[in-house]
Amino acid sequence: MPPQPAIDALVPFKRFDRAKERLAELLAPSEREALARLLLTEALTVLADAPSIRRTLLVTSDAEAATIAAGHGAQTIPEPEGVRGLNPALEAARLAILDGPEPPHALLVLHADIAGLDAAAIARFLAGAEAERLVRLCPARDEGSNALLLRPPDAIPFRYGPRSALAHAAEAEAAGARFERRIVDALQDDLDTPADVERLLRSGRGGAPVALLRSLGVAGRLRGAG
Q1: Which of 31, 36, 123, 201 is least buried, going by the fewest C-beta atoms within 10 A?
Q2: 1 lies in a domain?
């Protein structure tokens, strides 16, 4: 049996004061911050418990997020000043990782807004990542890229944005890498828009994030908006 690759997890997070801005019509600023804090904490907890993950790194410019990361054994890569946008922030973080000591064989990029995330989902997504050039992703419900595994870590450029699953697939083909879509239900429910929240509340999934949303009376707000 070949040795398991060293896999590091990279979690991007912008700032609590800008958290979940696309939910502004549904949640007050303090509620959006509370939801973002819960989701980030859950993601860091799950990654810390995932045996396939060697270490977790958070890329952010938010001091509170960095403190939360440290409390879960994660390192923080400060987002460079002047960097704007998810893709440049991830590229800068990837360069820092590859230039550091003991760079990983593979990199898992995981969004910090996935409801119902658990270690078993991470294990299912990462299982069998032996290919030397591999791009594997689990799409969000809207064809975003909720989980993206790159082996090697610089296999392709980052192409996050609308329908990024398709853009990442195209980059994999251009790079001659093996491309895999691996659907894991517990990795598909991100919370970016009111439609995401409504779908999650109807699904019965989501654990603590769903409990928080219900405690805030979000279901009633959605009915009122409809």
Answers
A1: 123
A2: no
